[in-house]
C-alpha cells in the first residue's frame, strides 16, 4: 500500500498482466496513458478545474508526450477518452498537437470517436477563460452525448488486443480455385484473412475476409493494399501469398505480334508487383514479433525451368521465370534471419506441368505446410498433391 501511495501508477501496473497483450509492448504503453489520464481526471473531480496548477500541467505535458510517441496512429482508437481528457486541459500552444494526432488516423472511417473528442476539446478551449474551480468537469465530459467516447475507446482497447494477437494472411490475386482454397485453409487455422483482387468489394466477404480492391498490373497500388490490412487488423500480414497472373497470347505463330505495351502490363502483374509486394511484406515483418512466421509464397509453374511447346503463354512464362529468380534471390538473402520466400510449383507425379489442372486444395495444404516450417523445403518448392514437397 505504501508503494502505491508513492507511485499511484503502480496500481495500473499490477493490473497490466491481466490485459490482453498487444505487439511491440503496446499493452503497457496504452495502460500507462490511461493511468495518467485517470489520475488527471480524479484530480479534477476532487480539486476542481485548475489547469494551471503545477501538478496538473506536469501530468498534461507528460501524457501529451506519451501520446505523441504511440507506435501507430490507429492506436489512438484505444485511447480516445485519455486523449479527450488531456486535450481539454491543453494550453493554446498545444492545441495543434492534438489535431495532428487525430488527422493522422487513416482511413477516415477510424476518425469518428477522435473527431467527437476534438469537438469536446474545442468547446473547452473556447470557454477556457470562463471556466472556474467550481466547473463540474465530470458532468461535461460524461454527458450522455459524450459518454460513448469512454466506452468506445475502452472496448477498442480489448478489440485491438484480441485482433492484433492473431496472425494475418494476405492473398493477392484471390480467385475461385487456389485463392479461395488457401483463404479457407488459413481461416480455419486461426488466421485473419485479407484477399485482394480487381473484383473485390472493399468490405467483408460472406466468409468474413477483408476484401481489398486492387489492380495488380499497377505496382504502385501495393502499399495501399498493405496499409488497408494493417488498418483493419492492427498488424502487418505475416504470410503473403501472391497468386495473380496475366498473359497475352500472340496472333497465331507470330511470337512478336504481342504489343510491347501488353508484355509490359503482363510483366507488371507477373513480376514487378511481386517485387512491390515482397518489399511491403519485408517492411511489415520488421514490425512483427521475432517468433512469428514470416513467409512469402508465389504461385509458380514449370515455365521457369524450360521452354514449353506452346506460344500461347509466352508472356506468362517470361514473368514466371523472372519471378522465380527474384524469389530465389530473396530467400537466399533473407532466410538467414527467418524470412522465407517460396516459388510454389504444383506438378504431376511424373514431374510434368499441371497447367490448367491446378488443384486448389493441394495448394492450400502445401502452403500451410510451408508456413509451419515442416521439413527442409528449398525456395523452388515443387510439390505433388498428397505428397507435399517432391524434388524434380
Question: How helical, in percent, are the residues?
Answer: 40-55%
Q: Which fold name fills CATH's third level, the topology of the largest domain?
A: Rossmann fold
CATH architectural grouping of the largest domain: 3-Layer(aba) Sandwich
The global form is: elongated
Total count of helical runs of at least 4 residues: 14
Total beta strands: 8
Pfam families: adh_short_C2, Fungal_trans_2
GO molecular function: oxidoreductase activity
Protein name: Trichothecene biosynthesis transcription regulator TRI10
Organism: Lachnellula suecica
Which terms summarize this structure?
alpha/beta, Rossmann fold, 2 domains, 14 helices, elongated
Fold topology:
Blueprint: H1 2-6, H2 9-16, H3 26-47, H4 54-67, H5 80-88, H6 95-103, H7 112-126, H8 137-141, H9 148-164, E1 168-172, H10 178-188, E2 192-197, E3 210-213, H11 222-233, E4 239-242, H12 260-285, E5 294-299, H13 314-334, E6 339-346, H14 360-372, E7 380-384, E8 388-389
Parallel strand pairs: 1-2, 1-4, 2-3, 4-5, 5-6, 6-7
Antiparallel strand pairs: 7-8
Protein model, in words:
The structure is a single chain. The chain is of the alpha/beta class and 392 residues long. It folds into two domains: 2-162; 166-389, Rossmann fold (3-Layer(aba) Sandwich). The protein contains 14 helices and eight strands. Strands 3-2-1-4-5-6-7-8 form an eight-stranded mixed sheet, with helices on both faces. Helix 2 runs antiparallel to helix 3, helix 3 packs across helix 5 and helix 7 (112-126) runs antiparallel to helix 9. The model is unreliable at 1-24, 107-111 and 147-151 (pLDDT under 50).
Amino acid at each position: 500500500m505504501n508503494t502505491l501511495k508513492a507511485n499511484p501508477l503502480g496500481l495500473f501496473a499490477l493490473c497490466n498482466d491481466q490485459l490482453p497483450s498487444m505487439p511491440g509492448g503496446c499493452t503497457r504503453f496504452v495502460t500507462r496513458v490511461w493511468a495518467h489520464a485517470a489520475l488527471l481526471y480524479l484530480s479534477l473531480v476532487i480539486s476542481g478545474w485548475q489547469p494551471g496548477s503545477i501538478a496538473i500541467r506536469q501530468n498534461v505535458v507528460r501524457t501529451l508526450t506519451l501520446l505523441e510517441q504511440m507506435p501507430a496512429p490507429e492506436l489512438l482508437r484505444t485511447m480516445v477518452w485519455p486523449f479527450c481528457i488531456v486535450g481539454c486541459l491543453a494550453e493554446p500552444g498545444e492545441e495543434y498537437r492534438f489535431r495532428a494526432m487525430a488527422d493522422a488516423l487513416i482511413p477516415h472511417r477510424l476518425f469518428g470517436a477522435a473527431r467527437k473528442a476534438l469537438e469536446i476539446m474545442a468547446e473547452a478551449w473556447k470557454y477556457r477563460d470562463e471556466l472556474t474551480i467550481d466547473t463540474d468537469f465530470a458532468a461535461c465530459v460524461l454527458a450522455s452525448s459524450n459518454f460513448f467516447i469512454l466506452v468506445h475507446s475502452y472496448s477498442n482497447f480489448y478489440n485491438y488486443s484480441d485482433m492484433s494477437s492473431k496472425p494475418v494472411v494476405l492473398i493477392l490475386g484471390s480467385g475461385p480455385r487456389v485463392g479461395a482454397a488457401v483463404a479457407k485453409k488459413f481461416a480455419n487455422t486461426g488466421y485473419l484473412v485479407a484477399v485482394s483482387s480487381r473484383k473485390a468489394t472493399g468490405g467483408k466477404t460472406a466468409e468474413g475476409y477483408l476484401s481489398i480492391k486492387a489492380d495488380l498490373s499497377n505496382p504502385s497500388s501495393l502499399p495501399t493494399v498493405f496499409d488497408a490490412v494493417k488498418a483493419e487488423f492492427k498488424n502487418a500480414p505475416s504470410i503473403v501469398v501472391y497468386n495473380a497472373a496475366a498473359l497475352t497470347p500472340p496472333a497465331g505463330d507470330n511470337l512478336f505480334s504481342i504489343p510491347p505495351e501488353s508484355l509490359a502490363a503482363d510483366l507488371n502483374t507477373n513480376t514487378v508487383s511481386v517485387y512491390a509486394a515482397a518489399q511491403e511484406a519485408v517492411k511489415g515483418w520488421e514490425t512483427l514479433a521475432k517468433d512469428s512466421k514470416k513467409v512469402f509464397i508465389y504461385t509458380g509453374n514449370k515455365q521457369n525451368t524450360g521452354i514449353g511447346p506452346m506460344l500461347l503463354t509466352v508472356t506468362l512464362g517470361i514473368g514466371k521465370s523472372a519471378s522465380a529468380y527474384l524469389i530465389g534471390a530473396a530467400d537466399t538473402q533473407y532466410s538467414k534471419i527467418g524470412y522465407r520466400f517460396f516459388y510454389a510449383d504444383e506438378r504431376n507425379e511424373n514431374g510434368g506441368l499441371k497447367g490448367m489442372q491446378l488443384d486448389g486444395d493441394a495448394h492450400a495444404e502445401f502452403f500451410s505446410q510451408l508456413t509451419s516450417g515442416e521439413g527442409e523445403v528449398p525456395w523452388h518448392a515443387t510439390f505433388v498433391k498428397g505428397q507435399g514437397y517432391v524434388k524434380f
